[in-house]
Amino acid sequence: MKTRNSFQSPAETVDQVIAALRAKDLDAVRQLYTPDVISFDVEPPLQHVGIEAKLANWVKVFTVFAEVTYELRDLTFTVDDEVAFGHGFARLSGTLHDGTATAGMWVRVTYGMRKINGDWLIAHDQVSVPFDVVNGSGVTDLTP
């Protein structure tokens, strides 16, 4: 894990998040988000406000998964001097604590980032699944 002030690009910050999630290292994850991050995650409520709420979501994941695999595809960033936004597709999968392997599902992910003291930190993220308007449910079997 890199130390603060060494995240050279938004994509590198996201790579560090993925490495921290695979290692189940919440302290490393904490370093990669702003303290006031707003997260629109796939589970309720509609928004998770602040780093503690963001980390609480990952604690839930780690209580279910013995081994975490996190994949990211087609990540694209638009970057300015102090802000960046990016989007791609992500899949959380792995091995559950009971030994069951799970393939997970692909979701859409969006990142809003700010450059603070030379670091690209995630200030906003959103994870979503497409919605079938006719039957009122999320569509979770799509692949990028």
Describe the structure.
There is one protein chain. This protein is an alpha+beta fold. The chain has one domain (10-128): Nuclear Transport Factor 2, Chain: A, CATH 3.10.450.50. Helices cover 23% and strands 48% of the residues. The chain has three helices and eight strands; from the N terminus they run ααββαββββββ. The chain has helices at residues 10-23, 26-30, 51-64, and strands spanning 33-40, 48-49, 65-79, 83-96, 101-116, 119-128, 131-132, 137-138. The protein has a six-stranded mixed β-sheet, with helices on one face. The chain has a two-stranded antiparallel sheet with strand order 7-8. Strand 4 and strand 5 (101-116) form a beta hairpin. The radius of gyration is 15 Å and the shape is globular.
Notable features of this structure?
144 residues, Nuclear Transport Factor 2, Chain: A, alpha+beta, globular, disordered N terminus, two-stranded antiparallel ribbon
What order do the helices and strands come in, and which of them pair?
Layout: H1 10-23, H2 26-30, E1 33-40, E2 48-49, H3 51-64, E3 65-79, E4 83-96, E5 101-116, E6 119-128, E7 131-132, E8 137-138
Parallel strand pairs: 1-6
Antiparallel strand pairs: 1-2, 3-4, 4-5, 5-6, 7-8
